[in-house]
Amino acid sequence: MNARWGPDEDEETAEAGDRLLAVRAAEGDEEAFEVLVHRHSPAMMQLAERLMGSRAEAEDAVQDAFVSAWRSLPEYRGEAGFGTWLYRIVTNRCLNLLRARRPAADLDAVAEPAAPEHQSSPARAAESHAAVRDLARAMGSLSAEQKVCWVLREIEGQSYETIAQAVGIRPEAVRARVFRARRMLTEAMAAWR
Question: N or C: lower Cβ tally within 10 Å for the chain?
Fold first, then answer.
């Protein structure tokens, strides 16, 4: 069962409910759209936060995506599930922001909070800091398209077909991007095996 649905609601029932709410919202029913926003916000925030790496940027991306969804509701035909449709909107918004993003600050220039003494030795803290730094660099070396496909597949657990719909490419292209991202991350993190 997916966490965004209630305890007595299965995925099929939720999708049917989403379609009905989307039709009502497209007709101007703001309360129906509020229910959709409430139902899908946690998953969309989680996705955006993983893609953007910042809660503030994720909140902006999701808010923009919901505004875009509200405006685009008359074009929503229900061919894909409403959640899949939202994934595509959020993913595209995040992709646009990632492409426009200025290069991030050097991670060595950003102070990392120290771990409490009782939880970590200095050697372990230094090792963890180095591993996180290397992973962040490796993730930063991925193209925005590779990062989105990798996050949707490896962290969100989406199928290649769902990712293809969300990103607007063929499933084969998704597989290729995920494969290249995995290879690059494996090579970059080889020292930490």
Answer: C
Burial annotation 24-49 (CB, 10 A radius, 16+ → b, else e): bbbeeeeebbeebbebbeebbbbbbb
For residue 42 the two structure tokens come to 């946690």
- Is the distance from CB of 62 to CB of 90 less than 8 angstroms? yes
Residue 99 to residues 14, 140, 172: CA-CA distances in angstroms? 34, 12, 22
Res 6 pLDDT > 50: no
pLDDT for 140 beyond 90: no
Distance CA 39, CA 22 (A): 12
CB distance 162 to 84 below 8 Å: yes
> What residues contact 106, with CB distance under 8 A and at least 6 apart?
none
Angle between helices 30-52 and 11-26 (to 10 degrees): 120
State if pTM tops 0.90: no
Between the alpha carbon of residue 111 and those of residues 59, 105, 106, 129, the distances in Å are 24, 11, 11, 10
